[in-house]
Amino acid sequence: MIYPQLHFTGQVWRPPYEASSQLLQITSGCTWHKCKFCSLYHGTPFRMSPLSEVEEDLKVISQWQPRARRVYLTGANPFALSYSRLMDVALLLRKYLPHMVSFGMFARVTDIAPKSVEELKNLRHMKLDSINIGIETAHDETLTRMNKGYRASDILEQLSKLDEAGIRYNVFYLNGLGGKGKGVESAVATADVLNRLHPCIINIVSLTIFPESQLYQEVINGTYVEEPEIERLIEIRTLIDRLKIKVNLLGHHVSNTVPVTGALPYDKAVLLHEFDNAIAEFPEEELKAYRNRIWHL
Ligand code: SF4
């Protein structure tokens, strides 16, 4: 028997909590491709899937998963597509997957800017219920240094629009991104911004620098010094301590030397205690050796 194949290009990423979602490619690669630390879509230029290709895939999915309830649209930032293009995709989803309850995707902060709150509400009405955003930090100095293409004030402004439109969002915090000596500042700045927003999940990932990234060259030539492992733990402890909102923390990613999972504010005391113990007990060299053994995220 020959199985029909869906169109997927390059490496496909999705958050861990989208493991049961039906994946559908509407873009590949990233529109930005300039963050210094990033090697995720190395070698995959940005491409918008033609609607005919999306429809072809949906015909296959409607045969093999006719009762699919959740769809995750793939690519680094499919939310970069225009409002009208996303509405076209939403209409196709509705046509081919009548049992679908919701869909989601990754977005950059800057992808939200061209969309009005009214347009966001319309997308919500078409079952876009959540997006995942790699804010990384709200520390302006680090955002600029890493070439993220936005500032903390943009995070606040754009994610507030999602709050207003009723679209849930999960953010990614990149522990260690500021480099040696910048962790606490990064955590404080990020908590200050997130305390004014309503993220559902803060995903915590710890910076691991791979040779394909620009940042790797800066490490080699000595212009960027990685944040030591104990400092990284102090950074996460600071973030947890400073957060005042109700939010889920999800940090069991391979890059985290100490996993973090909990719900704030309920688990705050326990989490802080765990980090205090780890900071007091784990030798820097052992944690560093662990990171050196990570060869892929
Ligand atoms: S971190 Fe995200 S926005 Fe930046 S280059 Fe990588 S995929 Fe694109």
Explain this structure.
It is a single chain. The protein is of the alpha/beta class and 297 residues long. Helix content is 39%, strand content 18%. The protein has eleven helices and ten strands. It has helices at 51-64, 83-96, 109-112, 117-125, 140-145, 152-165, 183-194, 214-220, 229-242, 268-281, 284-292; strands at 22-25, 27-28, 47-48, 70-74, 102-107, 128-136, 168-175, 201-206, 247-251, 260-264. The strands form two sheets. The protein has an eight-stranded mixed beta sheet. Strand 4 (70-74), helix 2 (83-96) and strand 5 form a beta-alpha-beta unit. It is globular. The two termini are 34 Å apart. The model has no long low-confidence stretch (mean pLDDT 96). The structure holds iron/sulfur cluster (SF4).
Quick structural gist:
39% of the residues lie in helices and 18% in strands.
Q: What percent of the residues sit in helical stretches (DSSP H or I)?
A: 25-40%
Number of strands: 10
Q: Biggest sheet: strands side by side, in what order?
A: 1-4-5-6-7-8-9-10
| Ligand catalogue | iron/sulfur cluster
Report on the biggest sheet: 8 strands, mixed
Q: Span from first to last CA?
A: 34 Å
Rounded average pLDDT: 96
Which descriptor suits the 3D outline? globular
Could you give the order of the helices and strands?
Answer: EEEHEHEHHEHHEHEHHEEHH
Number of helices: 11
Alpha-beta classification: alpha/beta
Gyration radius, in Å: 20 Å
